[in-house]
């Protein structure tokens, strides 16, 4: 079986391969800590809040520091931005890569022994020779050189794209090496499974209410077929399920918290996952426009997300268009 190192040697530039290698090594360390669990003292709160105002779990902080430390030591890395840190961290002025990451997506799952993961996105650095600033990171998702996630589930896996399809690896616990298990991950255009946090129903806009009403009605409603529902509360796990057996995932615009356009972060969650999903044949939108075409306005920007099976994503987009929604919930 092909190892990740062998794959990167033949598919990526030296700089990209080295950056991805650093991410992979950090993921192996995070995976080992998760395996030890309570015995490694990683459960519970760290006692701080991140920039998003969310309580940080101990392992959030540990994983963040591990990645930050390893990436800023990599000479190819010009700067790093983490979901957990207020500001970006400049690294090597001569580096050619910028890395954004969510060190532990789904961190509320740690204490209940359920799936979490690390999401990453690699962007080109355009001002080699100068110190990286936040503005350098504000590139559209279409600029990504690579994106992916490490999922710490019943086994540790990596799903990744370099812009030529999606490839999946599994961590061999004996050799501590990632081995390729799938070279052509594909998502069906149609779906019978959806993922949404339905407790937010009363805060959604009408097109999402109408869409979910149709799915819940199953073969007695407008969609004329039954749908199943799953919600792991870790985007990483919901996206992984979609890559394996299809479906659609949503964290749509809601009015729960004034001024917040959805919950998920454009640079750490939405863009990397959109790159993966599109490269596997799926689609991704904020309800109105393609997520990877959105010009980021700031590093911690939030965005509504609907991604997965193309037919379902198009259906949701049509409902938004019919209702005259222009962008992020604005009415025509
Ligand atoms: P945490 O990393 O703070 O647990 O958030 C995970 C997440 O951003 C995303 O991975 C989930 O899909 C979503 O939040 C779950 O949100 P709800 O708790 O509102 O269901």
UniProtKB/TrEMBL annotation:
Pathway involvement of the protein, from the record: Carbohydrate biosynthesis
Residue numbers binding Mg(2+) 1: 83, 102, 104
Alphabetically ordered keywords of this record: Carbohydrate metabolism, Cytoplasm, Hydrolase, Magnesium, Metal-binding
Keyword 4Fe-4S among record annotations: no
A Pfam family that the UniProt record links to this protein: FBPase
Residues the entry annotates as binding Mg(2+) 2: 102, 105, 269
Protein origin, superkingdom: Bacteria
Compartments reported by the entry: Cytoplasm
The reaction(s) this protein catalyses: beta-D-fructose 1,6-bisphosphate + H2O = beta-D-fructose 6-phosphate + phosphate
Cofactor note: Binds 2 magnesium ions per subunit.
EC nos: 3.1.3.11
Residues at which substrate binds: 105-108, 197, 263
Residues covered by the Fructose-1-6-bisphosphatase class I N-terminal domain: 8-180
Coiled coil: none
Domain Fructose-1-6-bisphosphatase class 1 C-terminal: 187-320
Cofactor dependency: Mg(2+)
Subunit structure: Homotetramer.
Family: Belongs to the FBPase class 1 family.
PANTHER family, per the entry: FRUCTOSE-1,6-BISPHOSPHATASE-RELATED, SEDOHEPTULOSE-1,7-BISPHOSPHATASE, CHLOROPLASTIC
Protein name as catalogued: Fructose-1,6-bisphosphatase class 1
Originating species: Moraxella catarrhalis
Gene expressing this chain: fbp
